[in-house]
Design brief:
The structure holds three protein chains of three kinds.
Chain A lengths: L1 H21 L3 H21 L3 H25 L6
Helix pairs in contact in A: 1-2, 2-3
Chain B lengths: L2 H22 L24 H5 L3 H11 L5 H5 L6 E2 L13 H9 L1 H21 L13 H23 L8 H19 L5 H25 L20 H27 L6
Helix pairs in contact in B: 5-6, 6-10, 7-8, 8-10, 9-10
Chain C lengths: L3 H21 L3 H22 L16 E2 L9 H32 L14
The chains are: A mainly alpha, B mainly alpha, C mainly alpha.
């Protein structure tokens, strides 16, 4: 059972990493990075590290995404 | 720039990284004494974390120094010691039930102080880079944003206080609590155009940072080691136990929260707007 | 059930995806995103070093009852402590990078690194 959860997380996180570095719209890329952070936090929880999971969920999925969004707001959205 | 050049560059980058990938697989098949990734780790017995988990660092180092033979650490690890029982054991090295917290703030607290300085310097760099920059202000908040912030603010505040005060009992602690406080200040900025004065945040940040260093230096004078534990440790698992870690983690959460709030405020409406 | 070697290979692949993005992208913010992917991968690798199968989290609570020295059944807490601070440092460095991007955009009016040098020709 837990093996399949790990497998789903592996596939989804590699997919979201590939999307976040290849897609042309930077907004989509940043949101995909936030999703990767969320998956990493679930992975930390499954690896018996609840401290790291809480920190990653609070920082990676919320604050980092917001900082990137401010950056996009002040610059441009398209990767030209 | 032509499109073809770009594709050739991507192809060579892929080839290069594939070769690196093959080299990075070598630790899986290592036979000798080099770095190897084992199939599974059986026990903590051969790791330094054994001493941290059983809260017997002073004991083990004392025995090792007396024997003078540091290669025999495994025998010393295997010696009989008392179990640590939840809500029974008292007067340990530090009374923190969360072992990660005891490493972050006690055994390797010097490292944490260095990381706090790194965070401080990076926020200084951000404010210097973005100084004298006039941003276009955001739109005024809509009704939905105001209501959402009104609903969520008390829960976020409660969560951050709970996490920072229970850092020695439950997962969490000062660092996630600080980032949740920064999220709260972001919410207030978005929902109510509520803007802290930078001087206020600087005062909070410098006061808590000074107190952290002062409490750490006090250990040098009382116990003889930097960040030494000079307050009573109490019973493991109680809320009011391991007082030094409780105070230090609350201060760290305030410091981290103020620093990240400064970062978010600087990115939100520039530094120029309240001077 | 889950193997430490699988976790190692997974974090290696994620790391190399991030490096690939950092050396092939032309947009500054996407380079920063790729570096964040590298950071996440290295954090996963560090935590996976301390993962012990069928063990409990390193937190003493009422369910665990006691930490017994002869039969220690918890994961390695040392990598957790290192990664905990490294994540928070990552936010600070990311914010510095975004600040530099904003400054460069205000000066050159573009984020593409190939077009940044020729400001005089614009």
């Amino acid at each position: 059972m837990i093996f399949y959860i790990f497998l789903i997380i592996f596939i989804l996180s590699i997919l979201s990493a590939i999307i976040s570095i290849t897609v042309k719209d930077i907004l989509f890329s940043v949101l995909s990075l936030g999703f990767l952070s969320l998956l990493a936090s679930i992975l930390f929880l499954l690896m018996n590290a609840p401290d790291v999971a809480i920190t990653e969920a609070a920082v990676g999925a919320a604050l980092t995404t917001v900082i990137y969004l401010f950056g996009i707001r002040r610059t441009e959205r398209e990767d030209k | 720039m032509k499109e073809t050049d770009f594709n050739v560059g991507k192809f060579f980058a892929f080839l290069f990284l594939f070769i690196i990938f093959i080299f990075m697989l070598f630790p899986l098949f290592e036979q000798g004494n080099g770095l190897k990734i084992e199939k599974e780790i059986k026990d903590l017995r051969n790791r330094v974390s054994f001493a941290y988990s059983t809260k017997s660092v002073t004991d083990i180092t004392k025995t090792l120094k007396e024997s003078g033979d540091y290669s025999k650490y495994r025998e010393i690890y295997n010696q009989e010691r008392n179990d640590i029982r939840f809500k029974e054991s008292a007067n340990l090295e530090n009374g923190s039930a969360n072992i990660v917290t005891s490493i972050v703030l006690d055994y390797r607290g010097f490292d944490t102080l260095g990381e706090l300085i790194v965070l401080f310097i990076s926020i200084i760099g951000l404010t210097i880079i973005l100084s004298n920059l006039n941003f276009v202000p955001f739109n005024p908040p809509t009704f939905l944003q105001k209501t959402g912030v009104l609903f969520l603010t008390p829960f976020i505040m409660l969560t951050s206080i709970y996490i920072s005060l229970h850092g020695h009992l439950t997962p969490g602690g000062g660092f996630p609590a600080g980032s949740i406080i920064a999220t709260l200040s972001l919410f207030l900025m978005i929902g109510y155009k509520f803007s802290y004065k930078l001087k206020f945040l600087n005062f909070i940040e410098s006061t808590s940072g000074f107190l952290v260093f002062f409490l750490a230096l006090l250990g040098l004078f009382i116990t003889g080691s930097f960040l030494g534990n000079y307050l009573p440790t109490g019973i493991v698992g109680k809320l009011f136990s391991s007082y030094l870690i409780l105070i230090l983690y609350s201060l760290v959460s305030i410091k981290v929260g103020a620093e990240l709030s400064v970062a978010i405020k600087t990115l939100y409406d520039g530094e120029n707007n309240d001077r | 059930m889950i193997d430490n070697r699988i976790l190692y290979i997974f974090s290696t692949i994620l790391f190399l995806i991030g490096i690939f993005g950092a050396i092939t992208n032309k947009n500054l913010i996407k380079i920063l995103v790729s570096i964040s992917v590298v950071e996440t991968a290295s954090n996963i690798f560090l935590v996976s070093i301390g993962y012990i199968k069928n063990s409990k989290p390193p937190i003493l609570d009422a369910n665990m009852g006691k930490i017994s020295v002869s039969n220690l059944n918890i994961s390695d807490p040392l990598p957790h402590a290192l990664v905990l601070t490294a994540i928070v440092i990552g936010v600070g460095t990311t914010a510095v990078g975004i600040g530099l991007c904003i400054r460069l955009f205000q000066y050159y009016r573009t984020l593409n690194i190939n077009r940044m040098g020729d400001k005089d020709e614009l």
